[in-house]
Sequence to fold (218 residues):
Amino acid sequence: MRFDLHVHSIYSDGHDEVKAILEAALMKGLGGISITDHDTLKGSLAAEKLIRECKMDLVLLPGVEVTTSEGHLIVLGAEELPPKGRSPEETTDLAHDMGAVAVVPHPYHPFRHALGRIPGCDAVEVYNSKHLFGIANARARLEASRRNMPMVAGSDSHFAATVGLGVTEIEADDAEEAIRAIREGRTAIEGHRTSPKYFIGNTFQAIYREIGRGMRRI
Fold:
């Protein structure tokens, strides 16, 4: 089954409603999706309701992109919202306590709240579709391969139009099986680069913010 495991909606910094995202996922031929808004499960809860009420043929992995003390970490299969500000390792332990998996997204992408390292988590996002040159993706794949860690992909979509550009093929028929398959590394990666028009402005904004923080520290 084809999943996009990294998507943002209007409940955090995405530009589109959850319904538009789900419709795009179906149009792209996806069998599953995870709405991974920043520090909130509202997008996932809205998706769960819409899939049920509209009888959409989609498997939902409840998700959230948690702000840890070092950067972002995705928790998939979360039924509760993990607290922000904890270490990546502690956040991973909390995910395990709720039967979820912790995935480090874009670990080496600059200006993306990346951890800059791969902690002891369940899987590594080795393909993030929002890249200019692919160097950070290649580095993540190399390190995950060296450590024999499960690999996933995600679009990191902030627009319905870009859903499905990072796909993880998972040997699963439902959410529970998908979580287990990710943990066991039964995945395959498929990716297409997001057009820079969808993220280049956000990248420059992030660079500007980082420069501003540095000037303030000086």
Notes: The two ends are 50 Å apart (CA to CA). Helices lie at 18-27, 42-53, 88-97, 135-146, 175-184, 200-217. The longest helix spans residues 200-217. The CA atoms of residues 93 and 102 lie 9 Å apart.
